[in-house]
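VOC domain-containing protein: structure tokens wanted.
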Amino acid sequence: MSISFSHDHIGFSVTPDDLDATIEWYSKTLGFSVDRRFDSHGTTFVFIVRGDAKIELMAGASVRQAPTGDVLSSMDPARLHHFCLAVGDLDAAVSELGYRGVELIGGPMAVADIGQRIAFITDNLGNIIELAEPGTRPSDRRS
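Answer:
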């Protein structure tokens, strides 16, 4: 039996007090909009979308994780580290986000092994977001 996968969404636990501020941050900063909002089993679920990117916010948690200021030091402890959004032009995206008050915690940097340039930011809660500019993998390059 073969199982086929495609990406659907990523989910974040947020505190009820942080839910509306998180929706606002993703809306104003990255252009996401609310697709669905509902309550089930004592938790508020909000799906926010932009293009093919979908994030599920689950408000029921009571403790917030400490934010990070540096992508390299954030790799400890073992946990979901980040999610990645593809951008057409990394320099333009970084510049626009800078105008919106978003600071980088890593990059921009080139990663030759994957043929991409990347940078890292955090959202209002400290969740790490990688921005990746499409590139050419070394195995795809013609000699």
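The chain has two helices and eight strands. The radius of gyration is 17 Å.

Cheers.
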